[in-house]
Design goal:
single chain; Aminopeptidase; 4 strands
């Protein structure tokens, strides 16, 4: 397994991992985890802005050259905010948490 900084070329693989998790969550609880019809399409756009902000870090884990997990996190500078953003996923569906990353 290798862990490295994510690059723009990883955005589609990251979005695919997140979409797989969305589909699993929707199967578990369809009302709570209702899937937005354009979630997969807009996620790379969000990631591009987040990664380009310079206020976040993204790591990709790969095995045998295939992305199997990702984490995206950022620190909020606002002293009154305790929100953070993180996305964690892997082939086995460890889970995804979306916080605020602005």
């Amino acid at each position: 397994m290798t862990i490295r900084n994510a690059e723009v070329g990883d955005l589609d693989a990251i979005a695919d991992l997140a979409q797989d998790q969305r589909l699993r969550q929707q199967a578990w609880a369809p009302t709570f985890w209702a899937l937005a019809p354009n979630a997969r399409e807009v996620h790379p756009l969000f990631l591009r802005v987040t990664l380009g902000s310079g206020r976040s870090i993204a790591l990709v884990a790969s095995v045998a050259g295939r992305e199997g997990g990702v984490t995206v996190a950022c620190q909020i500078v606002d002293e009154q905010s305790t929100d953070f953003g993180i996305v964690i996923d892997d082939e086995d569906g460890v889970g995804v948490f979306h916080g605020r990353c602005d």
